[in-house]
Structures are given as C-alpha cells and as structure tokens.
Design goal:
Chain lengths: ~450, ~475
C-alpha cells in the first residue's frame, strides 16, 4: 500500500503543476457556478410565485364578497372560488430541475370535477425547454465525466507515446498501480470541484444537510467512480493518445448523448400513454350528459358511491347546486379507471426508466439527482395525489352546506379549507450500487488489459 | 464549386487528385466502415422509432378529433348556452415533417379545451409524461444530422491536413509545387466525398419516411419544405467540413486538432444552446401562470361583468340596445337580450384574451429571437431553427395552433350566441332548447399548418449565421496561398 500512496502523492504534486488540469477543473467550476446561478434564479422565481398566491386568492375573494354581499348560496360561492395548491421546490430542486419546469408547480382547483382541472399545463416556452436545462445535475452528469475523461484518458498512452512505458516496466514498476493512482487522483480533483460547487450551493440556497443532501453527494461520487472505471479501462486498452482520446469521446457521446436519447425514444414509442387525453374527453362528456337526464337518475348514481347524502330531499326543478356538484363528481367517478391507469402507466414508465438507466451511469445519475431533489415524475404524481386529497377536503367542507342549501356571508370565507403543502420525504430511493458495480466492472476490465502483454 | 487558382501547375487537376487520394484513404480504413455501420444503425433506430411514434400520434389526434366531433354532432336538444359551456376540444396535429424533426412538439401542449368565457392553455405536453432521466436531447433524424453528423466529420477529418505535416509529406508536396491552398481544397473535397455516404444515408431515410407519409405528400409545399431543410443542412455540414480542414491545417498535432474541434462541437451543440436558453429566460422572463391568470381576470373585470345587472358598462349597453330597437324594456325587444349581453361579454373577453396571449406569445418569440442571435456563435441553433420551422414543428407553429383554436372557439361560441338571440325567447329562456340537428351546422375544427413563407419569416439571422459559418473557413483556407509547413 505504501508505494501506492507514494505514487498518489507524486501524482498530486504533478497535477497541481499541470496547467491543463487547472483549466479543465476551472471550466467545470465555472459551469457549476452558472448552474448554481440558474438554480438560484429558478428558486427565487418559484418562491415569488408561491408568495403571490395569498394575494391572488385575497383579490379573488374580495371580488366574490362584492358579488355575493350580504350573502350568497354556498354552491354559487364555491363555483367561483378557486383554491391554490402548490408543490414547493426543495432547495435541491434548484440544482436538479427534473420535470419541474414542464409540469405545473401551482394548480388552482375548485369544487367542480377534479379530473378536468388536474392536468393544466404551465406557461413555459417549449423552444427553451427543448434545449434542456443548465442545472447542476446537467453539469454533474454530462460535463464532470467529460472533464475526467479529458484529464485521465492518456494516463498510460502518454507514457507509451513518449517511450517511457517500457522503461517504467523495466525498472520493476507496474502499470496497474500507476494507472490506479493517476485515475484516482484525477477523479478526486474532479470530484472535489463538484463538491466545492455543491458546498457553495448548500451555503447560498441554502440547503440543509439532510439525508437527501448527503445522498446527492454520495450519488455525485458514485457516478464519478463509474466514470473513473471507464476511463481506466480506456487508458489501459488503447496504445496512443489519439486512440485513447477517440475512445473517451466515443464513450462520452454514447453514454451522455445517444443512449439516453435512444432509451427515451424507445420508451415513448413502446409505452404510449393516452389515458390522459381519454379521461379528459370522457369526463366532459359524462358530466355534461347529466344535463339531459332526469335529475333523480344522476342523484341515484351519485348516491352509489356517496351513500351519506342519500337521505337528502329529492331535487325538484331544473337546477339545484347539490345536483350540479353531484353531476360533477359522477363525471370524475366515471373516469376513475382511466385516471388510475394514467397514473399507473406514468409510474410504470418511471420504473422501467430506472431499470434501463443501469445501462449508463449518466442517465442513472440524472435519475438519482432528480429523485433526491423531489423533481422527478413520481414526486409530481405524489403532488397530484395531495391535490386530490385537498379536493376531497373541499367536498367534505362544502357538501354539507350545499346539500342543506345554506347561504354564506363573506365572514364565512375565512374558514374555507386551505391547501397545506406538506411534502413527504421521497420514498425509498434508488440504490447507488449499480454505479459502483459499473465502476468495479470496468476497473476489472482495465486490470485484465494490463495483465496481458502491455508493451 | 470553384477553387481559386493556386501557384504553379497545381490547379483544379491537382485538387481533384488530392481529393481522390483522400477519399481512397478513408474507404480503405476499417474504422470508416465501422463508423458508417454504427451511423446506419442509429439512423435506422431514430428513423423507424420516430416514424412509428409519429404515425401513431397522428392517428390518435385524428381519432380524438373525430370523437369529439361525433360527440358534438350527437348532442341532444340543448339550450345554445349549455352547448357553449359543453364546448369542444382542439387536438394539435403533428407538423408535416414531425417524424423527421420533432422540434418543440414534445414540450408543447397537445390538446386545448374550447369553451365559453375562457381561453384555456394547451395541455398534456408529452415531455411532462416522461421521466426526467433523459432530458439530454431528443433522438430524431434531424438530431442525427444536426448533432451527430458534425462529429462524424470531425472524426473523419481532424487529422486530414495535420497528418501531412506531421508525416513530412507536405514538404514533399510543396517541393513539387503543390501549395497549401491546393492541398487544403483537395482535402476539403475528399472529406466532403467521404462524408457524403453518411449524409445521403440519413437524408435517404428521412425522404423515405416522409415520402411514405400521406400527410406529408398531401402538403402542397412539401417540396419547398424539403428544399429549405436540405439547404440549411448543406450549409451546416459545409461549415463543419470547412472548419475541420481549417483547424486541421492550423494545428500542430492530430490530437490537438481533434481536441479543438470537439471542444467547438461541445460549445456549439451542447453548451451555448443551454446557456442561450438561460439568458433568454433571464432577459425576457415569462409571467408565472397564477399572475397571468389573475391579470386576465382583472382585465376582464375592467370591461365590465355581463352577469352583474348593475354593472355600469352593461347598463349603458342596455340603454343603447333599447334605444336602437326603440323600446323601453328588454322584455319588449324582438330578440333575446341575454344573448346579446352574452355576445358582447364574449367579444370583450376575447379581446382581453387575445391581448394577453399575444403578449405571452411575443415574449416567447423574443426568447426564440435571442436564440437566433446566439446562432451566430453556435450554428447548431441556426440549423435547428430553420429545420423545425420548415418542418412545421417550431414555436411559431405551436402559437399558430393556439391562435387557430382560439379563433374557432370564438366563432362557435358567437354562433351559439346568435342562435340564442334569434331562436330562444327571452321569457323562460333557460327552459327552451334547440333541436339536436342544429349542431351539424357548425363547421368542424381543422388545424391548418402555418404556410411555409410565414414559418420562415424572420429567419434571416439564422440563414446569415449559417452562411457565415460555411463561408469563413473556406475563405480562410483560400486567403493564405502559401503556408509554411
């Protein structure tokens, strides 16, 4: 072990005097700072949006109070009252945007059928979204491996190129420890750069040192370990610096650019999800059809799933609020199978993604980061479930008044339910060991290359 | 292509000889055929998967559009205002060449609910239904041609000139009177010939995919669209060919030439686009949705509330209407007053929507225009913008769809208000209905792709960027006739 440590010490000294290494790590650091800046902006904008919600709600309620003063039917007031729900961005989500720039972080819902309100898209510019985000996850998944490859691909080929390699072997040195020391020290340099950026992020955003934050760091290092294995393998398997550079770049492009894009396309093609559109169309059809049916029929349908209200007096006349909301709810109930299938299909896509992503560390790390940041599709689906629960609260709150034909005065508005954003910690997180297996596997391949004739 | 005359006897004949030698060199390499094989596999995967997905999406869009039309026509006797609230849906059809270049389509909403009193956003963007693991680029034939092909050019060509210098052959050639310029253009021509199989393979796949697509064949501007895409592609690929030979001629070692070119590619295809997106977003921020909606609601309220009998605007409007018909009470009007009020309210709110959504669209277009300026640094952005514009899959096509859907919404809601005004009596208004057969009178929603000319308006900067990038390396190669080896 001692000679290895000596090698490492020598490599550190060598690296500290290497201008190219400073340049590469400096560029990586600069990219990290830019990512940090975009993350900070994203979080600031998000917090401003959330902070603005009470004011928007208050303006709306003032208008409603004016319209229904001194009092108005509970059903009528509820018809005009939109309630804000939101999915707060964890500080880590500033560093891994995931899908959170596409899916809405705020959804306004009212007592009407929920399925027609749940999937409102956010206002984003698709032309920018299509180019991808410059978040820290991108820097860590795409740029950090590139920096490592650039620094370490010629760990042995440079010696071969300059003719020093046979000399080294003749003096009783062996290529294995040299390669290990070189790659390890360079991986440490890149990893420390990434950790430094993350440390700055922790201080600026600020990110509390929770299990997620530590998990983020562990993912950063495991991901780099996988790439260190890859680069060791390339360095061992090639004979000239040009060849090792070509090998490194090919691997980077395959892993970072092509494989994710190919998997993405294959998944979208193989697992189509059309339930979202289906349930949207169907929900409207079902709830509006109730206008053309006897009121009692809709009420009977409603009572099947909501027997608590079956004792209420029958609806007479053309319109009653309790019938209106019963009709809205049966519209939701008519698509509950599609809605469940929609969510299940999206979750299945996420599961299959996690399984396929083992093929490549960059894709897998992207998943790890967005999961720890609560910015993946699963986190969004969990948020939609919380909106669902809140909407059930709305029904539980308003139905007693609607079914009793009660009137509300503006003073009653203060007791309306409000959405509480309690974000649960992410569920059982993806394991790190696939990355470590990739690291160990490629390191073994590198060792095997060195065991044969190495000249 | 015209090559500038060079010194001595090294004219066009020498250029052709060098080009032939260069091409032979590539064709003899095993690596070349391996690369071509891998590229072919990528083309087949990208082409076929996109084709399958796009055919399915088009079929799905048509099925849904027909379904909601059948639902519309199948409505029973209904009050016209009930129908206005029932509304309908507009489904966005894929652009004419979406299978080749999906552009922004995965990130844009696919369905818009059209109803009275509201302009809804387009919902269900496909990207919102995908995992976050893969936001590093969308694989398509356009992606292969715009992003991967330059890399192929770099891999094939980064050593083309510098090898001659490193091996000392260039001195030999110079002694025979071959100028650096002649050598460079010979290399450029040879490299172009060696790249041609890759380009033709991907283009052939694209034409095959498009040519067998009835939606594309039915498009009157199909040829023009293809020509625009091919022209942009030729310029972009030409730029990388010229750049590769130029860098190769200016570098001391092959490894350094390769590193420089790959760094340029990384900057142009990966970093600058993302940074430009960040800058565009910072320079022209979009409002958040809650504020946008609140602003629309506030502006609508300023116009007056048609549901409020004491609203001053509608009080004046009532007086004017009564005066026009020369009666004293709304009950005495020969037409249904509620419907007139409704139509007036719809007109005002539609103006408000148009204003706010136009401002939103203008901000998005300003962001996109900033990307076009960034294209001067990163030609990838230029070819991308031109290709998706011609494919009918860019931001503009999306905004056009939203405008069309809104125009359709406004026209059917106002037609319903007219029927309400003329055929529903004011007394006992809500208990009356129109016969079920009337719904067939309404035209169906048909999304028309943006005409090519309109799609390409304002793309001057993108063309300029491509022309500059294509011309500058060639000019640099031609300018210096005598290089020292």
């Amino acid at each position: 072990m001692k000679p290895f440590l000596r090698l490492c010490r020598w490599e550190i000294r060598h690296l500290l005097r290497d201008g190219q290494a400073w340049l590469v790590c400096g560029a990586l650091f600069a990219a990290g700072l830019l990512a940090l800046w975009t993350g900070e902006r994203r979080l600031a904008r998000h917090h401003a949006e959330i902070a603005g919600l009470p004011a928007h709600y208050a303006t709306q309620m003032a208008g409603i109070a004016k319209q229904f003063s001194p009092e108005g039917e509970a059903g009528y007031v509820a018809y005009y009252t939109f309630f804000p729900t939101h999915h707060p961005l964890a500080p880590l989500a500033g560093l891994a945007v995931g899908v959170r720039d596409i899916v809405p972080n705020v959804t306004w819902v009212r007592l009407l059928g929920l399925e027609g309100q749940l999937y409102e898209a956010d206002l984003g510019n698709p032309a920018l979204q299509a180019l991808g985000n410059f978040d820290l996850a991108f820097v860590l998944c795409a740029l950090a491996p590139l920096a490592l490859l650039v620094l370490a691909h010629d760990a042995l080929t440079r010696e071969r190129d300059r003719g020093r390699f046979p000399l080294l072997l003749a003096q009783g040195g062996s290529a294995g420890p040299l390669l290990a020391a070189r790659v390890t020290i360079r991986a440490l340099a890149v990893g420390l750069t990434c950790t430094l950026v993350f440390g700055l992020a922790c201080a600026r955003l600020p990110i509390p040192l929770t299990a997620e934050a530590l998990g983020w760091l562990a993912a950063t290092w495991s991901h780099l370990a996988a790439w260190a294995g890859f680069v060791a393998w390339i360095a061992a398997a090639t004979r000239t610096p040009t060849a090792s550079l070509a090998g490194a770049l090919t691997l980077w492009i395959a892993q970072v650019v092509l494989l994710p894009a190919l998997l993405n396309l294959a998944l979208a093609t193989a697992l189509p999800v059309r339930e979202g559109l289906e349930l949207t169309v169907r929900q409207r059809q079902e709830s509006h059809a109730a206008w053309d049916k006897p009121r009692a029929e809709t009420m009977e349908n409603f009572f099947v799933h909501n027997p608590d209200w079956s004792g209420t007096p029958p609806v007479t006349g053309r319109f009653a609020w309790k019938w209106y909301y019963a009709m809205q709810q049966t519209g939701d109930e008519s698509v509950s199978a599609e809605s469940a299938a929609y969510r299940e299909n999206l979750r299945a896509r996420q599961r299959i993604t996690a399984r396929l992503a083992w093929l490549g560390p960059a894709a897998y790390a992207q998943l790890l980061f967005s999961q720890r940041a609560g910015s993946d599709l699963d986190a969004h689906l969990a948020y939609l479930d919380r909106v669902r629960a809140f909407h059930a609260d709305l029904r539980a709150y308003f139905y007693p008044m609607v079914f009793a034909d009660r009137n509300l005065t503006p003073a009653d508005y203060a007791s309306f339910p409000q959405f509480r954003a309690n974000v649960p910690p992410p569920p059982a997180s993806l394991p790190l060991w696939p990355l470590l297996i990739l690291a160990a596997g490629s390191a073994t391949l590198a060792a095997r290359h060195l065991r044969g004739p190495t000249l | 292509m015209n090559f500038p005359p060079s010194t001595g006897d090294g004219g066009g004949g020498t250029v052709a000889t060098i080009a032939r030698a260069e091409l032979r060199l590539h064709l003899r390499r095993r690596g070349f055929w391996l690369l071509l094989g891998l590229f072919a596999a990528l083309v087949v995967a990208a082409g076929s998967l996109n084709r399958v997905r796009q055919v399915r999406e088009r079929a799905e869009q048509q099925t849904f559009q027909q379904l909601v039309r059948a639902q519309w026509e199948g409505q029973p006797d209904r009050h016209p205002h009930r129908v206005a609230h029932y509304g309908t849906f507009a489904f966005k059809p894929p652009g004419p060449l979406a299978a080749f270049d999906p552009g922004v389509e995965s990130f844009a909403g696919r369905v818009q609910y059209l109803e009275a009193h509201r302009q809804n956003a387009a919902n269900f963007p496909a990207a919102g239904e995908l995992s976050s693991a893969f936001r590093l680029g969308e694989l398509s034939l356009a992606f292969v041609l715009h992003t991967v092909l330059p890399l192929i050019v770099i891999v094939l060509g980064c050593r083309t000139f510098v090898d001659e210098i490193e091996s000392g052959r260039f001195r030999l050639l110079a002694g025979q009177g071959v100028s650096a310029c002649t050598l460079a253009f010979g290399k450029l021509l040879g490299l172009t010939a060696a790249t041609a199989p890759f380009l033709l393979l991907a283009l052939g796949a694209a034409l095959l995919a498009a040519g067998t697509d009835p939606a594309f064949r039915g498009d009157p501007s199909a040829l023009a669209r293809t020509a625009v895409i091919a022209a942009a592609l030729a310029l972009h690929t030409g730029a990388w060919l010229g750049l590769t030979v130029w860098i190769s001629a200016r570098s001391r070692t092959a490894a350094r030439a390769c590193a420089t070119l790959v760094s340029l590619w990384l900057l142009g295809a990966v970093l600058v686009p993302r940074v430009a997106a960040v800058v565009a977003d910072a320079r022209h921020p979009l409002p958040d949705k809650s504020s946008f909606t609140a602003a629309v609601v506030a502006a609508t309220k300023q116009h007056g509330d048609s549901h409020d009998p004491n609203d001053p605007h509608f009080a004046r409007f009532r007086a004017a209407t009564l005066a026009r018909y020369g009666v004293a009470r709304v009950e005495d009007l020969p037409v249904n007053y509620s419907a007139i009020v409704m139509a007036r309210g719809e007109e005002l709110s539609a103006e408000t929507f148009a204003e706010h959504f136009a401002a939103l669209g203008a901000t998005m277009e300003a962001q996109a225009a900033l990307l076009d300026r960034a294209a001067l640094v990163a030609p990838f952005l230029a070819v991308r913008a031109l290709s998706s514009a011609a494919a009918g899959t860019d931001l503009r096509a999306q905004l056009q769809f939203q405008r069309e859907a809104e125009t359709y919404r406004y026209s059917f809601v106002q037609r319903l208000n007219e029927l309400h005004r003329d055929e529903i009596r004011h007394a006992n208004d809500k208990d009356q209905k129109l016969a079920a057969g009337r719904w067939k009178e309404f035209p169906d929603f048909r999304a028309q792709p943006l005409p090519l000319r309109a799609a390409l308006a304002g793309t001057g900067l993108a063309w300029l960027a491509l022309l500059l990038w294509a011309a500058l390396p060639v000019a640099a190669l031609a300018r210096r006739k005598e290089w020292t080896a």
